[in-house]
Amino acid sequence: MENFKPTKYTLKCVATSREFSDAGWILDDAECKAPSLVRAQYEKKQLEVRSDDYGFYKFCDWLPVKRMLKGSSAPVTYRSEALAKHLGLSNLWITLNGYCPEKGVRMTTCSFKETEAYSVCARIDEDEERVLVVASAGNTARAFARVCSDNNIKLLLAVPEDNLSALWFTEPLNDCVKLIACEKGGDYFDAINLSNIALKSSKFYAEGGAKNIARRDGMSTTVLSAATTIGRIPDYYFQAVGSGTGAIAAWEANMRLIEDGRFGSNLMRLMVSQNAPFVPMYDAWRADSREMLPYDSKKARRDAELIDAKVLSNRKPPYGLAGGLYDALKATNGDIMVATNAQSRRACKLFKELEGVDIYPAPGVALATLIKMVEAGTIEKDACIMLNITGAGEEIATKNHELHYLKPSKVFSLTPDVDEVVNFVETLF
Asked: Average pLDDT in the 178-194 region?
């Protein structure tokens, strides 16, 4: 591991198919005029899974990373027995992201957002002097804060004030991590807006969200875990989505696994879900619209307040751009479904009773929609199903720990003054 070498890859624009080198922190193809993702084209076409000593970086062949950071844990996939039996499914596989040492997974922030953070931060040059900026509804911020703190990477977070309870840690953070917030009543989009204002300063650079290949390919390790454990590509993929980035990543991993040639040739049906009443992507999908439908900002904020799964509250997701969720669903014959708070809560309770681990509301939404498909008879009982549990084990991780909360250095209005924000954040580092 001491001799770790940066992964070799090029970039390819989805819209134009132009291939080019990753000469720095590239998020877009500068020559492409259409909204589009770029993808990593890895030199190694067959995945060599390293030992568990590598942590998350056991999948480094298909990660755009320059180094290994300390403290990582990879997703763990196992065959369900109790939940599968309860649902009458013979081939249900659970990919667990969270903290559950008993099952071999040790993501201390209890979220698969660690897969994003360990990948994105390992893409950063070690001598980078600028400050990384990340907007989040909560769990992404917690993951990036922990990874950046442990590895001394300068980070500015922007989070809605209503979601600050998500920023808990079992150990204090390094001073290289700072937080600003948008006032009560704001949502994830307001946090994004605040982060974009901070980025007007040359001292900062954007993480990039779904446009960052490292974020998507980090999240794709859930599918790599599943396929290499099962020995084949699953038939179905279940996950709750806020931006859809995880599902896009799953599709991209699926295509790489087909090219690998050892895991079959099928495309998983992407069965993604949203938490009612906050369902903008569901509405667009039902209308067969590549473009998001109008969504009044006041109603969106109210709807975001009502859902248990606050992390699923992105009202401007990368849905319709080339290579985005719309394309992923069309390519895989996928679908977007909906679950209520009550359905998610029942699913969370069932998972803990049968699988022995507490899970967050978002994976509860995913499980609830799987249950609905089983009850409706619209999924084959012998199908190979991957259930992506995107966050779990908080009760285990926090037990017997004094919790430390990251406090905002300043809370800004929902219509912040640009100069005030820029001048303030520049003083933080």
From this structure: 95
pLDDT band of residue 23 (cuts 50, 70, 90) is confident
The token duo for 260 is 């690998």
Instruction: State whether 94 and 196 are in the same domain.
Output: no
Q: Domain range holding 343?
A: 76-110+214-397
CA angle 217, 218, 223 (to 5 degrees): 75
Do 279 and 384 sit in the same domain of this protein? yes
Mean pLDDT of 173-197: 95
Burial grade of 225 (CB within 10 A; 0-12, 13-18, 19 or more): buried
Give the pLDDT of residue 1: 57
- Give tens-digit pLDDT for 88-136: 999 999 999 999 999 999 999 999 999 999 999 999 999 999 999 999 9
Mean pLDDT of the 56-79 span: 97
Same domain assignment for residues 284 and 358: yes
Q: Which H or E run contains 386?
A: strand 385-389
In a domain, 4, yes or no: no
Q: Which segments within 276-380 are labelled E, that is strand?
A: 335-339
DSSP state of 382: T
Residue % of the chain over a pLDDT of 70 = 100
Residue 383 belongs to a domain: yes
How remote is the C-alpha of 286 from its chain's centroid?
A: 23
Task: Give me the DSSP letters along 71-140.
Answer: T----EEEE-SHHHHHHT-SSEEEEE-SEEGGGTEE-TT-BTHHHHHHHHHHHS-TT--SEEEEE-SSHH
Residue 227 DSSP code: H
Alpha-carbon radius of gyration of the chain: 20
Q: What pLDDT shows up at residue 2?
A: 61
pTM of the predicted model over 0.90: yes
> Do 315 and 382 belong to one domain?
yes
Our measurement of the distance from residue 214's CA atom to the centroid of its chain's CA atoms, rounded to an integer in Å, reads: 11
Judge residue 53's burial from the number of C-beta atoms within 10 Å of its C-beta, 0-12 exposed, 13-18 middle, 19 or more buried.
Answer: exposed
pLDDT, tens digit, 9 for 90 and up, residues 33-49: 999 999 999 999 999 99
CATH number of the domain encompassing residue 177: 3.40.50.1100
Q: Are residues 393 and 410 in the same domain?
A: no
**Cis peptide, bond prior to residue 280, ω within 30 of zero:** no
Please choose, from the candidates 309, 382, 292, 397, the residue with its C-alpha nearest in 3D space to the C-alpha of residue 345: 309
The domain total for the chain is: 2
